[in-house]
Amino acid sequence: MIMKGHDTFRVAVRGLEQAIIALLRQAHISVRDIDIIIPHQANIRIIEALAIKLRYPMEKIFVNIDKYGNTSAASIPIALHEAVAAKRIRDNDLILFAAFGSGLTWGASLVKW
User: CA 27, CA 47: separation in Å to the nearest integer?
Assistant: First the structure.
């Protein structure tokens, strides 16, 4: 098995950006309407690149990869739990979840808390 990290990085950032933009268009909202983004915690460089592409402040993106590393499919539920416990999410907040994974798949969803 040979992993092409740079290529995977570019595909992940592009796929996440496209999924988020499509979701925002479908919901008729702007990224500025999102109170917090909870992304898949695979790689901090991907998260930071996504923030730049979306022009979204890193301070409003929940990150815990430094504590656990990549926990795969559990990364968003773990991050959501920690964000709630840290009171980073309040009633009526609009949360955007975004993930990518094996097979180069990606997706995004919105939740009104």
Answer: 22
At a CB cut-off of 8 Å and minimum separation 6, what does 22 contact? 108
Residue range 45-91, pLDDT digits in tens: 999 999 999 999 999 999 999 999 999 989 999 999 999 999 999 99
Exposed / middle / buried, residue 28 (Cβ in 10 Å: 0-12, 13-18, 19+): exposed
pTM of the model: 0.93
- Domains, the chain, in order of start with CATH, read 5-112 (3.40.47.10)
List 105's β-bridge partners, or say none.
Answer: 101
Only one residue has tokens 């919105």, namely 110
Which amino acid is located at 13 in the chain? V
Spatial separation of the C-alpha atoms in residues 57 and 105, rounded to whole Å:
25
